[in-house]
Amino acid sequence: MPLEDDVEVDKRKLNKILEILLRIILCIIVVIKIINKDSSNIENVVACFFLSFYDYFLNKIFKINLSDNAKISIIIFIYMALFLGTLCDFYDKFYWWDIVLHFTSGIIAYNIGKEIILIILKDKKSLKNNHTLICLFAFLFAMTVGSVWEILEYLMDSIMNLDTQVAREFMGRDAIKDTMTDLISSTISITILLVYDFIKNKFRESKEI
To answer: 0.90 cut: is pTM over it?
Structure first.
């Protein structure tokens, strides 16, 4: 047990270090942009900075305390998506970067969905042991997150005249290719986890019989 406690403490420290490091990097970027009088992508820097406090808002508003593994995954994802993807132009440099991120986001959202449903069912032991319910909730939660994200991208493109969905100068199927590729990428990772969990739970149940 002490060893497990040490591991949890190390994970908590790692999460805090990553959060602080990300914020320091973003502050440095803001200072450099101010010195150079460069306002490009400044909204992404600000968004990234505020997103790094997601854990505080989750805890205070929704009373949800995610595991350290989930927190570390989210911070790394924010760094990959907004810092490397947008500020370092990884989306333009590597055509597969967006696909990898959406595949990864499906994994993160699925696992967060499982954590949320377990928190909700913490006082309902009979339902807490219903692995099918937990897996289906995680699946639907992750699918919803992917869909809502694409809606937000569409709204940002419409309201702020951005091009996050790469739709300009395209028509027909090509106009929604980026959106569908994103959704398919996350759906594949979510489905893989769902199937894996079902197989793992069936195997566990067969051993208990």
So the answer is: no
